[in-house]
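Sequence in, structure out. Go.
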Amino acid sequence: MLQKIREKSSGWIAGFVIILLCIPFAFFGVNSYFQAQVVTFVATVNGEEISDSDYRRQFSNYRQRMAAQMGDSFDPRFFDQPVIKRQVLDDMVRSEVLWQASQQGGMTVPDTKLATQIREIEAFQVDGVFNADVYQQLLSAQFMTVDEFQSLMRRDLINTQFPDAISQTALVTDAEIAHVAALEGQQRRFDYVLVSAESMADQVAIDEQQILDYYEENGDRYSEPEQVTIQYIEIDAKEIAKGIEFDEDTLKLRYEDQKGRFIVPERRSAAHILLELPSDADEETRQAVLAQAADLAEQARGGADFAELAKEHSTDPGSSDFGGDLGWVERGMMVEAFEEALYAMEADSISDPVETAFGVHVIKLTAIEEEHGKSYEEVREEILADLREADAERLFVEQTSRATDLVYEDSTSLAPVAEDLDLEIKFAGPFDQSGGEGVAADRAVIEAAFSDLVLLEGSISDAVNLTPNHAIFLRVSEHQPAAKKPLDEVREEIVAALEAETKKSLAEERAQSMVERVQAGEVLEQVAAAEGYTVANSELVGRRGASVPYTLVTRVFELGPALIDTPTVVESSNDDSAVVVLREIVDGNVDLLAQAEIETLRTRISQMKAAEEGQAFIEALRQSAEIVVIEDNL
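Output:
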């Protein structure tokens, strides 16, 4: 056999085949045939990737915001829909195309504006004042560095510049104001007959067959969802850390090793007056601004109130109202020229004019906090917490790895894992796919509990990460399949629903029969009286007419002018109906509005047009961009 293969593999034909086989290896490499190509992004916009991690973080933030807004009505299953996931991605795509356009347009955000925006975020303030420690702590809690946060803030601020610039070009004409005033101030007069659903109650009789049919046709409304109860073990680095202790010698040795870490850098408290100097200003203008700054500096040195000078002359919107106060400034927070001048000053002194890209500054140094090191006693608890955290993280990894090995050995019981790691077996549930309480509220736990591996195969899950260094292993201890509730349990609900539907239908039919009689030539008042109703005549009412039911007024304002003097059936409120005859339409008159009302209307129209034009601009960018979406990664 081997000899035959050798014979067949010789000759020009075999050589040609070998050359063909070599081509793909030459271009792509042997490894490409054996290594999976992992795509770590969900989309590209003009070649720029939107990473999977960024998308997951954005989607998680969106779910958290919606959960806070919706409260008890929040349903996690709603956010598993592909359309919702795509909506979040579309928002990120729009942000990316806007960012790219802003970069091409040379848009920037001054450091002073960025610092002002950050200082004004309430979450970073204590008693209304920016607090650097709180700032650092909150960012650390979100696993974000200062540079990352400032980069995101800068991007958001830059992304508003194009839409803001477009919005400022939105013009509102007098004709547009008159048109909107005519519509919003419009009044209508009409006759109407209210036919309440409740007035049909004596005609409603629900029989057993109707109940049975409704129960069969609407079974989903009366079903208990599939539910599970889980048992789980929990490995949490924070809990592990509570049992870890270190002696004083170890703590002091760590302090000596890391003394440099506990050096608090010098910082300076400053205020400034900023005089605007356009980048394209000529030399004469520049000298004039420098002279004005020098004059203000001399006034301050001569005893003038610096804060009042700042309020009167400074063009920095973030600090002028506060007397130019910039708070505590550390190295790296300001542009280089400003920082060099500030750190060259003595306490309570006033600088000469300092020119930067943002204008000309006069700086007042109000206080200096020298660089200093913290004592062992000051940082003992911090060192202890760090050592505990590091040791706890190591033990967390070891215990999670050990638990994984034990699960692979026996995936049907948590008892061996709990015994080996000295952990308690806990329970949660029952809960359905909308979640429950405690760990059952976590989406990752819900997905694991209802996965095929856990639910159908009865296995223990892989480690489910709740937060960094906090995981659980779970298995389903009880499963309740989805089941329709017994008819007797939901009979009253069904009867109530059937009665409501029937009464509403009968009211609509009664109103429609009255319309048909009027259309045949009878008088509305006579038809209404014959049916036991009365005709009400409204005065001229606006869109928020208080004397007439709001829903009825809303429906009347949906009727076109062509329906004047034509009887029509509309919804009145809830399940009620009404016969309406529109009699008169009177448009609003802009000439009757006060000037303040006209200006308010102009502002509102301008804002609406600006929003529309801004969205149109972003959509145009999106349409012209090359966008590739990896659907499988959503």
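Check: The longest strand covers residues 359-369. Residues 1-37 have pLDDT under 50 and may be disordered.
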